[in-house]
Amino acid sequence: MDTLSDLATPLTMGILYGGLYVVIALGLSLVFGVMNVINVAHGDFVTLGGYVAFVAVTSLGLDPILWLIAGIPLFFIMGIVIQRFLLYRAFKMSIDAALIIAFGISLIIQNASQLVWTPLSRSLMTPYSFKSFQIGEVYIPLVYLLDFIAAVIVMLVVHQFLKRTYLGQAITAASQDRQTAELMGINPAVVYQYAFGIAMALAAIAGVFLGLTFPFNPTSGVRFLIIAFGVIILGGLGSMVGTFIGGMFFGLSQALGGYFWGPTGQLLVPFLMVLIVLTIRPQGLFGR
Amino acid sequence: MSQEVLLRVNNIDVFYGSLQVLWDVSIEMKSGEMVAIAGANGAGKSTLLKTISGLMHPAKGSIEFAGMDITRMNAYDIAAQGICQVPEGRRLFPNMTVLQNLMIGSYSQKARAKREENLARVYELFPILKERQNQLAKTLSGGQQQMVAIGRGLMSNPKVMIIDEMSLGLSPLFVSDLFRVLHEIRARGITVLLVEQNVWRTLHEADSAYVLETGRIVMSGRAQDLCEEEEVRNAYFGT
Ligand SMILES: Nc1ncnc2c1ncn2[C@@H]1O[C@H](COP(=O)(O)OP(=O)(O)OP(=O)(O)O)[C@@H](O)[C@H]1O
Ligand SMILES: [Mg+2]
Questions:
Q1: Any idea which ligand is nearest the CA of B55?
Q2: Would you say residue A231 lies in a domain?
Q3: How are beta strands B19-30 and B5-16 bridged, if at all?
């Protein structure tokens, strides 16, 4: 058997589950775009999304994707509340204060999840968890394909929202020039609230697909935050296409790293790729 | 033309942190007027405009607009009340298209209702913008960017339009065109407040004017009269 067809499996898988990274990174980048704050709790919001879906699956017997019908609005509202009553108050003092609050939220979520759900790894079990499909010679787990489909849908919806609605345009404008946006009658506090609410809704979605794809535990969020950060930088800050390609690229290099060097290569290779890309193109693949 | 005072700035002091930039500045604008503020580099012109727009707040003094106290109001509320600012350096949203930049100008509720009408007006004033409407703002020439900036201001359906350094970096011929547009805008009942370093030009275009020098108003009056003032001639025209 030649190496090329051997490689086909990790290549396809990497690109597909890279979709999960796209969804995580999109929420992080949306908030960073308007507030210039790296929301260090974003990864923990994602795992929280996973745990809440875990409850929906185990105690209510719901399908986790179906659960999102309630999960998305729930997280959206949570985001608005956290932004309005917690983060924004700190943000008005300084970006550093907001960062510290975000750290605090991150620690609280991690420790509370340990209390409630124990430090054990969990995953979302469904009838299709172990299903796979075949492309040519290659067998691919179905959930990886779902990651990719979720990423495409989320990208299209967010893109259309940003482009076609007044609120979306306000978010876009504020992320390009906050002061001038204010001169246009845009209240930045409102923009931050909605951007944060949307980021949380994206975290709910990401949490479900995370739980379908990989086992997660209360501290997994940190790892996904770092990955999402890598994806945004790789793709170029402020570019949605960049985030999408960045996510795929990250998944791809992770899968290849794992294929050649085992678990140690899984994160080493993608972050080496980030370094290489940044050396050649400091603004990232699609940065402007 | 009604002659009631539309915008009044009363004895304001403005600081950046502990650095005072404006001292006891007062100006007033009558409805339908074109008022100019002239002054050299660093005199505090932009600071005055930012304070009127609510991006900064005075430490002392007050600002009234249409009988309302707007001294402590937020910039986004002031914009919704009908004061728009075309900022220094255009400050377009670079990665949004021309049309998107114009549309975001009509963000406030009142302006949204008149969106189509105002867009038609803007395209009438600047036909080239219609041709370029789907181009990203950052790809336009400086002159076209200034057109978008003014158009974006008009989209907010303003009562007062404040323009900071409109002619900066543009050719004299093009600037003449823009001034023609400003007169047209004024003819439609919009009060215009202009800031320029080019004192001569400004005084010839405006009805009344103020001269700002290191944060203080040193002269004011009818623009035409100021043109004839010896001090102004000596200081700015070198005659
Ligand atoms: N953000 C700031 N922080 C501190 N000082 C500032 C700031 N912006 C302006 N200044 C200072 O305030 C003074 C007035 O600046 P301002 O921009 O209002 O002048 P201007 O008349 O608009 O000048 P120009 O013709 O160059 O635009 C200057 O001395 C400037 O250095
Ligand atoms: Mg200035």
A1: 1
A2: yes
A3: antiparallel
Query: Could you tell me the two tokens for B188?
Result: 């439609």
CA distance A150 to A156: 10
How many residues in chain B?
239
pTM above 0.90, yes or no: yes
Given a contact cutoff of 8 angstroms between Cβ atoms, the answer to whether B178 and B146 are in contact is yes
CA separation (Å) from B134 to B24, B33, B98, B101, B120?
A: 45, 34, 6, 10, 16
Contact B55 A176 (CB under 8 A): no
Q: Find out whether the beta carbon of B39 lies less than 6 Å from any atom of ligand 1.
A: yes
CB A198 within 8 A of CB A19: no
- The candidate with the shortest Cα–Cα distance to B224, out of B191, B192, B202, B198, is B202
Please write the tens of the pLDDT for every residue from A122-143.
999 999 999 999 888 888 999 9
The domain tally of chain A equals: 1
Instruction: Write out B128-180 in H/E/C secondary structure.
Output: HHHHCCCCEHHHCCHHHHHHHHHHHHHCCCCCEEEEECCCCCCCHHHHHHHHH
Which CATH number fits the domain that encloses residue A67?
1.10.3470
Rounded CA separation A177/A72 (Å): 29
Q: Which residues are CB-neighbours of A135 under 8 A, at least 6 positions away?
A: A12
Domain membership of residue A4 (yes or no) is no
What is the DSSP annotation of A18-76? HHHHHHHHHHHHHHHHHH----TTHHHHHHHHHHHHHHHHHTT---HHHHHHHHHHHHH
The low-confidence residues of chain A, meaning pLDDT below 70, are 1-5
In sequence order, which residues have a C-beta less than 8 Å from that of residue A98 and are 6 or more positions away?
A35, A37, A87, A90, A91
What is the Cα B155 distance to its own chain's centre? 14
Strand segments (E) across A34-193? 132-135, 138-141
Ranges of CATH 3.40.50.300 domains, chain B:
1-82+161-166+193-239
- Ligand 1 neighbour B50 (Cβ under 6 A): no
What is the homologous superfamily of the domain B1-82+161-166+193-239 according to CATH? P-loop containing nucleotide triphosphate hydrolases (3.40.50.300)
Mutate to test the interface with B, among A184, A187, A191, A239 (most CBs of B within 10 A): A184
B233 pLDDT tier (thresholds 50, 70, 90): low
Instruction: Give me the domain span that covers residue A109.
Output: 9-127+137-280
Over residues A204-261, the pLDDT tens digits come to 999 999 999 999 999 999 999 999 999 999 998 888 899 999 999 999 999 999 889 9
Contact (CB, 8 A) for B222 and B37: no
